[in-house]
Design goal:
Elements (H helix, E strand, L loop, with lengths): L1 H30 L15 H4 L14 E2 L5 E3 L4 E4 L4 E8 L4 E5 L4 E4 L2 E11 L5 E2 L6 E8 L5 E10 L4 H7 L9 E8 L11 E7 L7 E8 L3 E3 L1 H9 L18 E3 L1
Parallel strand pairs: 1-8, 2-15, 10-13, 10-14
Antiparallel strand pairs: 3-6, 4-5, 4-11, 5-7, 6-7, 7-9, 9-10, 12-13, 12-15
Pfam families: Carb_anhydrase
InterPro entries: Alpha_CA_prokaryot-like, CA_dom, CA_dom_sf, Carbonic_anhydrase_a-class, Carbonic_anhydrase_a-class_CS
Family: Belongs to the alpha-carbonic anhydrase family.
Length: 259
């Protein structure tokens, strides 16, 4: 009788132990979040699912397809690019999603009478934004931040043509393996992009990567920069293939063409 009771008790303990293991496994699975990517089960169409506390399912997301005939027009008065030749790039890294150059305090923009400082530059291939449905080989994002945390991103589309001395400089620090970085601490002059002379589109959107934060000021320049095919290919070979987010709906937002 004692032997039977002992065997029954052991059986119960095993069942409880197994149930605890299963429950703990479920709890662990619930708290283990997949890392986002640009392909497969963690691609952009799944970001809202795997990044539950993000804004990736928000109403005012980026990128968008800018249809010129549908935009409002305004005289260009609210943007001033304040880039100079003395700003330092601190480092470059391959973060697994793009090649990113980090900047020390220096280059800035004045947008809507608010000063924001350039924090980093990264790249997407092909372009994330479209103009009249046209996809460009590459898009450069210049990310700025003001003292209140407001984000303003300049989107510069890239078109293949002649070599770019700026991209030759950028790519002199490549190749770079995923997760690796290099200290640079050199001056860079971005004024050669001539952004003050270019017309642009502006709208309210989001970051194009998780957490897809909204209320981001977007400025997308109508005229593309020019870089060589080899420069495009070299940058492409150092990034994930097709590191772009799919087009997002406007949901009633206005896009302004600043001429």
């Amino acid at each position: 009788m004692i032997t039977r009771f002992f065997n029954y008790l052991c059986f119960v303990l095993v069942i409880v132990s197994c149930n605890d293991t299963v429950n703990n496994s479920k709890d662990l699975a619930l708290h283990t979040e997949k890392h986002w990517s640009y392909s497969g089960e963690t691609s952009p169409m799944h970001w809202e699912e795997i990044k539950r506390n993000s804004s990736c399912g928000g109403e005012f997301q980026s990128p968008i397809n800018i249809i010129h005939k549908d935009v409002d027009s305004a005289k260009q008065t609210n943007l001033k690019i304040l880039y100079n030749a003395t700003t330092f790039i601190s480092k470059v890294e391959n973060n697994g999603h793009s090649i990113q150059f980090d900047f020390e305090l220096g280059d800035s923009i004045n947008y809507n009478n608010n000063i924001s400082y350039l924090k980093q530059i990264h790249f997407h291939e092909p372009s994330e934004h479209k103009i009249n449905g046209i996809v460009y080989p590459i898009e450069m994002h210049l990310v700025h931040l003001d003292k209140s945390g407001q984000i303003t991103v300049l989107g510069v589309l890239g078109e293949e043509g002649d070599e770019s001395s700026l991209f030759e400089f950028f790519e002199s620090f490549l190749p770079l393996k995923e997760g690796a970085f290099k200290e640079i601490n050199q001056h860079v002059d971005l004024s050669g992009l001539l952004l003050n002379e270019k017309q642009y589109y502006s709208y309210q959107g989001s970051l194009t990567t998780p957490p897809c934060t909204e209320e981001v000021n977007w400025i997308v320049f109508k005229e593309p920069m020019i870089l060589s095919v080899d420069e495009v290919l070299k940058l492409k070979s150092n990034m994930p293939i097709n590191n772009y987010r799919n087009e997002q709906p406007l949901n009633g937002r206005k896009v302004v063409y600043n001429y």
